[in-house]
Amino acid sequence: MKKKTYELDLTTQGPLYPPSEVMDGDGNFIVIGAINCPTAADGCETRWGRAIVSPNSTVPTFGGMAPYEIVESFDDSLPDHIAGKVLHTLPLPLPCTNYPMLFAPEQYPHANLEKRPSYAFHKAPIPDLKPEHGRQLQGPVTLADWARARGELTVELVENRRAARFSFLFEGLLPCSLYTIMSLRQHDLNPAGPTRPGPLGVPNVFVTNYHGTGQYDVVLPNPFPSPDTTGANRIVNVVVLWMSDQMSHGGAIGRYGLGGDIHAQLKFRKPMFDDFITQA
What we know:
The chain has 280 residues and is an all-beta fold. The protein has one domain. The chain has helices spanning 80-83, 143-146, and strands at residues 3-7, 9-10, 29-38, 44-53, 70-73, 150-158, 163-171, 178-185, 198-199, 205-207, 214-221, 235-243, 262-267.
């Protein structure tokens, strides 16, 4: 396989915990993604779906699973009372998380110790911002606004299969907004020793236009090494993140991650790119 095009899936979720990177005004998680559900045998299974999830949900150790405490489930066709929910960041410290990760260790070594409340997206703190700077996002963002996002990714092997080009086209994103694209590698969620999720290229940001459309193109060295290669850590997913602080962080995807300042809007439902092999 040398070239393939994919459609990205709408989401509000990064890993399983916290259940979402988006909250409503009542402090519940708005989940479009993998839902942890109870089974008849008192176990737990994960199904892709949509639900309002309580912040009082049980949080297992990293790598484990427990059923979410579901307040309400909803369908793809959003009911009015769900569609109109105003989206908020997660408070700090992050609730319902078990992911032992510092996302920007050189820039913000104490980020996991910081405290602040949840903010509506259009009121999220932006460092050094003054009114005369012209913040572009002026009004509330609803779930209906969020759910308009669409994205297409074309992956092509280049440089004699020593690299791959990732080319994205987007529509329906939040207008006049800064986004980051992160890579998820196969060991980033490994309970035995997770690697730090990083950006898909540096610089790894793009800004949408007034209509919420945008594009992003990047070439990465050897992103899909053969699985039997020593130390192989293949890219298995990509995640399109709206940045509530409207900042870029160099070799880090964000300051806090997981809904504190990054908010997953598009990704794939399952690991991808098995058809590709690159070499160093």
